[in-house]
Amino acid sequence: MNFIDRFLVFIVLLPKGFYKSFGVNYNQLKTILKYKNIMGDRTPKGINALRKTNQNKPTSNVSYFQTFLSIFLGLMFMFSFYIGVNYETKLTIYFSMYMFILASTLIADFTTVLIDVRDNFIILPKPINDKTFLLSRLLYIIIHIVKTALPMTLLGLIYMGYYNGLWALFTFFILILFATLFTVFLINTIYILVLKITTPNKFKSFISYFQILITILLYAGYQIIPKIISQSTLQGINFNLSNFSMFVPSYWFGAAWQFLNSFENSFKLIVCTVLALTVPVFSIWIVIQYLAPSFNKKLALIGTSTEEEKVVKSNLKPVKFTSNYLRFFSAIFTAKGAERMSFIHTWKMTSRSRDFKMKVYPSLGYLMVYLVLVFLKNDGGYGIQFPEADSFFYIFVVYFCNFILITALGYLSFSDKFKAAWIYYVSPIDKPGKLQLGAVKSLLTKFYLPLAALILILVFMFLKLSYLPNYILGISNQILIVLSIAYISFKDLPFSASAGNKVKGSSFVRGIFTLLIPLSFGGIHYLIRDFLPVVILLIILSFIAIWMVLDSIKNRSWEQIKTQSDF
Amino acid sequence: MEPILSLVNVFKSYGEKQVLKGINLNIYPGQVIGYIGPNGAGKSTTVKIICGLISDFEGEVLVNGLDIKKDALLVKSKIGYVPELAELYDVLTPIEFLSFMAELYMLNEQVANERMTKMLIAFGLEAVMNQRMETFSKGMRQKVLIISGLLHNPDILILDEPLSGLDANSVITVKDLISKLAKEGKTIFYSSHMMDVVEKVSDRIILINNGTVIADGSFEELKQQQGDKSLEQIFSYLTQGSNNNNAASQLLEAFNN
Question: Do the interacting molecules here have an ipTM over 0.85?
């Protein structure tokens, strides 16, 4: 245990006599907390758990890192002190950010903290009573929350104390405590709602999507909000003017602080103060009384065989090999045999592998954010505009869209279950290039075809038909670029390499490469865009080049494949 | 002799599905019980009930005359459990994990340290005692789990597929260990799919299917009842009836197209 954990464990264990009077075995409690914290310190959490690529290096000192990260997030909250005319407004924004970030962090972490199936097999068969076990879980969660929440609010507390004095600091601290309680209630409610409608295993993937969403939203927020709202507007915001703000929980806390520091005789402020101080207590009571018991029952079900049995039953449906649309696309784009099999396999893996999705889908989200940014007016006003007949804009968009595809391509070789790639080596495949070609085509169809179609629709809607050749050249160049990058960098079989083997430097080089190639193609395209004969000539050249690259990928032999030795 | 473990009319359902339909068993000290049955027969559920993992069942489970529902803690301290699937906290080192287990059993620290070191050495794990178990093979994890089940010197040892992943030498060690523990009066409850091992180590075989006991006796007794067959054949006959050869024929018939 590091000193942070040791200190917190020491603190929560202080009411020794109190615990004992409840029938808790103090020594067992202490042991569980000690080892749970040691394990916590060695388990990567949140986004890092999913991004962790280097499996060979044991993780340690997660607590320090976590604290640092929380302080950094807390720094972002400080932005709120810059907004609004009064503290009521500033703190409403502060609490909104705090509650949102805390909820998303805790939701992600609770899957590792709470849903540790192994507890059922390891701790429960030991002579330990329920009270000790439940208390250990509860205290561990409290330690975890404190470890996350305290550093997050540290800067805010310092700011408050420095500018507004001790009473302001004290009331702010108390309100943070209540806001934390309320957030825990919200998380619990979300958990229970989700567990009501789905199984714990599916819930884990739900969490992953939730994290992707949070990442993208945060990114979008920081990119877009300063663009659409000007500085003076930001500083002029006043939540006190609207009565709707009373329905926003974070406003209660902002208003409560305002009231406790001014004792202004305002009905609205008083109501909000009462809400801020009673609702969290009441909601925690609901959690303890009603939500937690059913939650624990659900948790105990994890790891029992009931879940698997359900699966077996549903498999009795008629045999279904591949969906119709997938069969349709694979028939159009691929040759029969290894290539088609690889196309379908890649399609399914990219939809189902959590690992792949966690890495690729965020960049899809960032792409969307960029596109929205491009469409937004830059003059600080609201609204969306389509730059009419601005061919540069469309060429830019067309060339920009392969960003996601190249990201996806970078992860195509990797999988958690890389050992399953033995199937490629034992089956009679003459040229492994066919497998690679099928996989690359699959990515193109899945991630690029919809975008290309969308842009085509936009071209018809907003541009003259005379831009069609330019559009075709753009799309064709995109395919050429992606295929060339695939030819150069995709040397493994699809999903056949362990993520731990990923060479670090290459991703940086690839990043530069990825930007430079589309940019130079796009630049040249932009220069010649008005010379129709040249455009048509380039289309033909581009088509020929695509055909050649396709052919050379397809004919790649076993000798050219990076062989994996770690089966 | 008083039974050390008895199950009286044990029923258990998950929702609508009844997994155990009235299990009645009396097990005596020093017996090695081979607990066998097809997938989904209720083996794991029985094991989890005896270990105290599942408490909402109907019927009675008595260990040394103590009701597991009433004296769960006393009962649990007399039982050692080795789960299947090598479930352990692999970010800990073997020493850390075993110390954790020992403290949960409230063992004296010095006694526990001596025991676990000796046992780790006996299993040939002395070189990796202080390494995190993340990189351990399935067999190495299984050895640590077996030690964690034995550490507090339990009267009843419950083993759920204990040999999976172990190499041939370790299999011999564990088999030897089982018979030596039985000679000392310990009771072993051995749940497994590996018929040849069950046939050799157990002196009483209990076969369950669809939540009921369908055969109970020594291997010799079972052979007398079912004709001179191997345990595998008896198992197959009792759980599938005469259909046992059909699956293979059906597999071959699939080529006729």
Answer: no
